[in-house]
Each structure stands twice: as structure tokens, then as C-alpha cells.
Amino acid sequence: MTEELRSLLRDELSAERPPPLGDLVGAAVRDGRRIRRRRRVAAFGGGTAVAGVLAVAVALGGPYGTTAAPPSGGERAAASAAPAADRVPATPEAMLVLLRDLAPPGKAGDFAKARGTDLQVQMSLDRGDGPGLIRVSVAGYPSVTGTGKPEVSVQEMPDTCTQSVVVRADWPGGLTVQADLLTCRPGSASTPTPLALSAEEATAVVSDPRWGAAMDPALVRAGEQDFPDLATFG
């Protein structure tokens, strides 16, 4: 290569502007920041997704988003009753409040309790044909009804007017709730009276989970208020 050619090349290179170093460095810094931001967003987004899955699982009630089966009718009834830990010793007055509430529409009266310490009560119900007597007793253990279903039996004894129909519920664990339906006034067997309840209605009464040797404090308080001077029978 001749010296003339070398001179021409030097002149040409000298005429070119050098690359702006400051802009290159700034661009490199900006690119680096963008890359780091993308990485942080990706990491945060992944964590958020995992947290969202866990939150949904908790909200649905299980680690895999499963939910419990809906409660049965018996379980719903038991849940509506007072928890065993909140109950207090039953009283005849509280039993009468519950019996009155469970009875079908009619005029209730003749409220009384058995003499002694037995948990047995009496009530009449007039549904238009005259008053018929009902007696309900609670015996055995546990002190409260269970969450299961009772075994109910119906016995008809037409020759015994003080127990013409006996409906008994034996709850799991040993508690027994019994309803005696009378067809006469005690001491007046010659004068018949109507049945206050049908066997089906009496079954609904003895199958209520609120019965027990321990009952809801609200029922006990209501009994004290509604029946301060309760008569006795037996």
C-alpha cells in the first residue's frame, strides 16, 4: 500500500465521529435495570399466584378446595339446640315450656309436675273437641340427647285410659323421652277425653333434641317466669 493510499484512509477515518460513549453506558444501565425489574416482577407474580391458590383452598374449607357434605336434618336440629357445655340441670318448668312450644295449635292448660324429683310433666291441649292430657317424662343418661337419631316406638293400650298411647324415644347413649297420651281425666276413668296428639305428632315431640336431664338455660329461665307456682300430680 502506497503512502498516498494510507493518507487517504487516515483522512477518511478522521472524518467519522466517534461513538457517543456516554449514551452507550446509559443505555446499558437502563437495559440492566429493565432486566432486574422483569426478574423481580416474575418472582413476585409467582409468589402471588401460590398465595392465591392457598387462599382459595382455605376459603373452600380444605387443602384441595373440597367442602364438607351438607348436614343432615338431624344434625341441623342438634346444631340448633344449645351445646351440651352450655346446658344446665333440667326443671319440670323448663320441660313444660318446651312441651308447650312443640305442641300444635290449641288451648293449653292443666300444667303440672310429678311429685318428687322425677322429670315428668303434664299439660292438656284443647284443639276444639275438649282438652286431652299429655304427660312427658325424661329419664336415663346421657344428660342430653345425642347427635344421632332416636329409636321411636309407639304402643297402644286402649284398655288403659291413663296411657292409651305411649310414644317413646330411646336416644343413643341411654336417654329416654316418653309421651303418655291419656283418654280420661285421672280419677275419672268413666269420662273419656280426646287424644291431644296423634302418634305422629307425639313422635315429633319426643324426637326433639332439646330434651334431656340438662337443658338450654333460656328454657329454664322461661320456666321460672311462666310457671312460678306449678301444681303437682301423682
Structure in words:
By secondary structure, the protein is an alpha+beta fold. The chain has 2 domains: 3-59; 75-233, no CATH class. The chain has helices spanning 3-15, 21-60, 73-80, 92-102, 199-206, 217-226; strands at residues 88-89, 107-114, 119-126, 131-139, 151-156, 165-170, 176-181, 184-185, 188-192, 214-215, 231-233. The strands form 3 sheets. A 7-stranded mixed sheet has the order 5-6-7-4-3-2-11, with helices on one face. The chain has a two-stranded antiparallel sheet with strand order 1-10. Helix 4 packs across helix 6 (217-226). Residues 17-29 and 39-81 have low confidence and may be disordered.
Total domain units: 2
Query: What's the β-strand tally?
Result: 11
Cα Rg? 42 Å
Estimate the mean pLDDT confidence.
Answer: 76
Share in β-strands: 15-25%
What's the SSE pattern? HHHEHEEEEEEEEHEHE
- Helix/strand class: alpha+beta
First and last CA, distance: 140 Å
Biggest β-sheet, characterized?
7 strands, mixed
Overall 3D geometry?
elongated
Report helical residue fraction: 25-40%
Counting DSSP H or I runs of 4 or more residues, the number of helices is: 6
Taking strands numbered 1, 2, ... along the chain, how are they ordered across the largest sheet? 5-6-7-4-3-2-11
Low-pLDDT ranges: 17-29, 39-81
